[in-house]
Amino acid sequence: DAAIPFHGARQAGVTAFQQPATHLLSFDLPRTSAAADRKTLRGVLAALTRTLATAASDAPRDPRLQGGGATRLTSLVGIGPALAARLRLDVPAVLAPLPSFPGDRLDPRRSDGDLLVQLCAADRWTLTVVAELVAAAAHAAGAAPRWTQSGFLPHTAPGTTPRNLFGSKDGTANPDRTAAERWVWGPAGAHRHGTVLVYRRIRMDVAGFAALPEGRRDLVMGRRARDGAPLSGTAEHDEPDIYAKNPDGSYVIPATAHVRLASPRFDGGARMLRRSYSYDDGPTDRGLLFCAFMRDPAQFTRVQNRLAARDALNPFLQHRASAVAYVLPGAAPDGTLGEQLWT
Ligand code: HEM
After folding, report:
1. pTM for the full model?
2. Would 90 be classed as within a structural domain?
């Protein structure tokens, strides 16, 4: 396998094929004066660009990454809304912290942050090594670690949808290229090649859900776990028909089914690009690292407000951490991530 190029109009951590392993790192910047902190941020972004470009290349300097092309490292770097506001950075005006939602039980020590780095690769080893290089480069440039989180996917043949810990195919109804230009990537102008990442660490009651009979699980989700097809259709990629009715007049995809409440039909067709991972942090702490990319985080807020109110999945879920970041446009071969931020 060849290395996935680091440089490009868009960061490879969003555009490349979803890799089976991920590691997220969040950092905070010191709070001195805005001028000094802007300088620190420039230094951190330059250090991250150098470190990530080298680690992703075919010839990384670190001996632990040699033969590195096969590890297929991809990355993305994002800016948190609080930092953007404090340093008056030029980010899309829609970048803002999420509101709180009913049922949230967020741990601030695992949430938010000034800078977010998501690493993805073919294997965990690469991520551990690169995470260490990233943390060292960020530290040397003045950023302090805030939280880290690792996640994984099952081995899945290319082009097929990975399953989550409830056993469902997760990521089926993602936007195609045309829809992504409208709903995922930034508006025309300096932010055309940027996007916003919404991250939620959602604990799942895997045993509780598994205890439901299969037919009941499929009604909760609105899709069949076996093949991923919507209850209104026969194949995984059939569009869920939220208007389809049973002979008795009830909806085929029930009123509180997850895919009904998450349907883009309630949002003027708005779609987010979901690239979630599972996590396993101990016997009672497993779940989903929900990772979704969108032009405007209000797209997430609208869906999550509906889900929080009445998703049939809710008895099996707890939102335990949250973060939002503006995912910067990519860097040119002679450029640095974040050149758009300074006006
Ligand atoms: C669809 C699982 C949380 C938004 C789906 C599907 C599954 C799923 C199995 C159907 C297959 C697919 O299209 O990918 C889960 C689980 C969650 C969770 C297990 C929690 C642990 C969320 C959250 C949001 C969300 C927090 C956003 C607020 C969506 C959307 C769709 C979807 C937009 C596609 C709907 C469509 O276009 O048909 N989810 N999800 N999900 N989910 Fe979730």
Report:
1. 0.97
2. yes
Q: What's the domain range around 50?
A: 12-330
- Is the Cβ–Cβ distance between 167 and 157 less than 8 Å? no
Span from the CA of 262 to the centroid of ligand 1 (angstroms): 7
Residue 1, domain member (yes or no): no
Q: What is the pLDDT of residues 13-61, one digit of tens each?
A: 999 999 999 999 999 999 999 999 999 999 999 999 999 999 999 878 8
Pocket test for ligand 1, best of 258, 288, 319 (most atoms within 8 A of CB): 258
> What does the alpha-carbon distance between residue 168 and residue 232 come to, in Å, rounded to a whole number?
16
- Per-residue DSSP letters for 168-211? -B-S-S---HHHHHHHTSPPSSTTTT-EEEEEEEEEE-HHHHHT
Count of the separate structural domains present in the chain: 1
Q: Is residue 7 part of a domain?
A: no
Element (H, E) at 170: none
Which of helix, strand or coil describes residue 196? strand
CB count, 10 Å around CB of 88? 12
